[in-house]
Amino acid sequence: MHFAEIKKIINKQKPLAFVGTYGCQQNVSDSEKIKALLLRMGYSFTKEKKDADLIVFNTCAVRESAELRVLGSIGVLKTLKKRNPKLVIAVCGCMTEQNHIKKKIVDTFPFVDIVIGTNSIFSLKNLIIESSTKNHKKTINSVLQKISTRETDENLSKYREDQTSAFVPIMHGCNNFCSYCIVPYVRGRESSRDPRAIKKEIEDLVENGCKCITLLGQNVNSYGKNLDHPIDFTELLRSITEISGDYWIRFMTSHPKDITKELIDEIAVNDKICKHIHLPFQSGSNRILKKMNRHYTREKYIKIAEYAKEKIPYLSLTSDVIVGFPSETYEDFKRTLSLVKSIRFSSLFTFIYSKRKGTPAADIEDPILHQEKLKWFEELLKIQKDISGEFCSKFVGKTEKILLKEDCQKALRIAKTNQNITVHLHNLQERNIPNGFFEAKLTGHKGQTLIGTLDF
Ligand code: SF4
Known about the structure:
Layout: H1 3-10, E1 16-21, H2 25-41, E2 44-45, E3 54-59, H3 64-83, E4 88-93, H4 99-108, E5 114-115, H5 124-133, H6 150-154, E6 165-169, E7 171-172, H7 183-187, E8 191-192, H8 195-207, E9 212-216, H9 233-240, E10 248-252, H10 261-269, E11 276-278, H11 286-291, H12 298-311, E12 316-323, H13 330-343, E13 347-352, H14 370-393, E14 399-407, E15 412-417, E16 422-425, E17 436-446, E18 449-454
Parallel strand pairs: 1-2, 1-3, 3-4, 4-5, 6-9, 9-10, 11-12, 12-13, 16-18
Antiparallel strand pairs: 7-8, 14-15, 14-17, 15-16, 17-18
Helix pairs in contact: 10-12, 13-14
The chain binds iron/sulfur cluster.
């Protein structure tokens, strides 16, 4: 089936697609594959669902609130489908990998045409063609995740709106089974990409002017274990940074049980690797860490964090924290607060525990009321706010290399330091300034944002 036929069916020369992305950077990267595939099919993109001939929701299952938001957004499409019966609606991503959610989508929203899993992007083209050519008399619901292969998605190219920075997945899935987390169930077991394919992708990006590449993996520190010729993450980083050019490499996420001193030593001496480590600790209580199945203790975390801070001057150490894990007491929570006060993270991503059906933590008794958890959460935020400000203040008075780039989601231009701190630039509008690296004089900070002027 040639795409010209779809154009005929839709009766439009330039059919429009809306791609909505929820959740993490991995999903952003998957949406780039979806967009490249749609572009090749002849679609252009719109930011308005009401103008679209095709709507794709790439969903996230990590928190219940995100799922509810997606389900609400799908529900609203009923009116659009009524108005335009030729509209094709596709739902993909982590949510559709959970049987109860998949059933809910199929049963509650019969106007959804296509439902596919996380590793089935390659199948989208045929399903859209099928859906468009059935004259919309029949709804197709296909969940193909079990018959797809990652290799098939691996070969898809990406459409990147932002030419200055890029996400590059180096591995997929996760083997850790933290007791609260749905990721291993929806993204499958850990598998690393071929280092040659990663390097080639980054060489192409650098050649095309990309200045900041973020390597993605659920646990980058276990990179390489399933490869025929295993190499570890530090070796991969070294090999990538041999590519000549002026660019930064970032990576996320590290796991405290697997991060090595060799990696920290490499970050310390390698100019191309940003001085930022995202190292989630989740809880400061050993009792809770055990229930979370995290495989490290508070003491081990503190030791590795202190080693990194000592080795890397001006290191930005960031972390994820879960507040109100089932059975957590205020005493446990106070252990989290004391860890935060002692490590002094540059910023924290804080979450109130969200129950995920099918995970072991969902079966642990959870007597603490949400209101109580909210109070703890606010206590943590208040403490962290001052610590983040204190971290920013270390840069005030300095002249730093910053990267000016687009934030495509917010349609804004933003500047970031090597440590990934946002800089608000006073004189950005003065000239027609392209994206790229500049020097900026940092004159102050407001909370977690630095304030400065470009140094021409
Ligand atoms: S390391 Fe734990 S929290 Fe992270 S994706 Fe894997 S299971 Fe989830």
